[in-house]
Amino acid sequence: MKKIIYLILPLLFILLNSCSGYKPIFATGNINLKINNYLVEGEKKLSKKIYNNLNNLIKSQNNKNPKEIEIYIEISKKKEVTVRDGSGEIKEYKITLNALIKIKDYLENIEIMNKNFTNSSTYKVLDNYSDTIDSENRVIENLVNNTYQELLISLSKIK
Predict the structure, then answer these.
(1) How far is CA 98 from CA 43, 124, 144, 147, 150, in A?
(2) Longest C-alpha distance within the chain, in Å?
(3) How many domains, in total, are found in the chain?
(4) Cα three-residue angle 33-151-133, rounded to 5 degrees
(5) Domain for residue 25, yes or no?
(6) Could you say which of 41, 50, 79, 148 would form a disulfide bridge with 74 (CB–CB 3.0 to 4.6 Å)?
(7) pLDDT for 53-74, tens place per residue?
(8) pLDDT band at 47 (very low <50, low <70, confident <90, very high)
(9) Which of 124, 120, 107 is nearest to 34 (CA)?
(10) 119 lies in which domain range?
(11) Which residues contact residue 47 at a Cβ distance below 8 angstroms, ignoring those fewer than 6 apart?
């Protein structure tokens, strides 16, 4: 019995110690930025949501010596019919958000990022018009959040 404990105890210690440097893949701790200037165009309400989310994240981190940037966000939204029934009545829509995001170093005027993020999703037309509008708004909100998450992943790769 003592032999088993002497074998298991060091193995358990090694396994527990190997997890001590764990860092989540999508951690935003290495985004050391400060937004000095920004411009939103296109669907300004959606562009502003992405800017506000990013700005709130940056402000909450309290980094020392952040890289000063200016950011340009332009979002375009396209809504198209994907399914019609036999009488021509619309049954489903597809919404595509295309976000062009450019980030420049504020002091050196060097482009850090120039990336286009495209996300799309479908939703069904419901019996009640207000339910259909609510469904459309939820889809748009999810697409904006997906775009924001992709932006964070891209920013975390920038050194």
Answers:
(1) 10, 21, 10, 9, 12
(2) 79
(3) 1
(4) 125
(5) no
(6) 41
(7) 988 888 887 778 888 889 999 9
(8) very high
(9) 107
(10) 31-157
(11) 40, 41, 73, 74, 75, 99
- Angle at the Cα of 36 from the Cα atoms of 32 and 38, rounded to 5 degrees: 110
- Give the tens place of pLDDT for each residue, 23-39: 555 555 567 788 888 99
Is residue 76, in this structure, part of any structural domain at all? yes
In a domain, 19, yes or no: no
Q: β-pairing, 67-84 with 33-42?
A: parallel
d(CA 33, CA 64): 9
Instruction: Please check whether residue 150 is in contact with residue 26, taking contact to mean a CB–CB distance below 8 angstroms.
Output: no
119 within a domain of the structure (yes/no)? yes
Q: Is the pTM of this model over 0.90?
A: no
The CA distance from 148 to 55, in Å, is 12
Instruction: Decide if 47 contacts 77 (C-beta within 8 A).
Output: no
68 and 107 Cβ atoms separated by less than 8 Å:
yes
Structure tokens at 32: 């050391």
Report, as an integer, the average pLDDT of 82-100.
Answer: 93
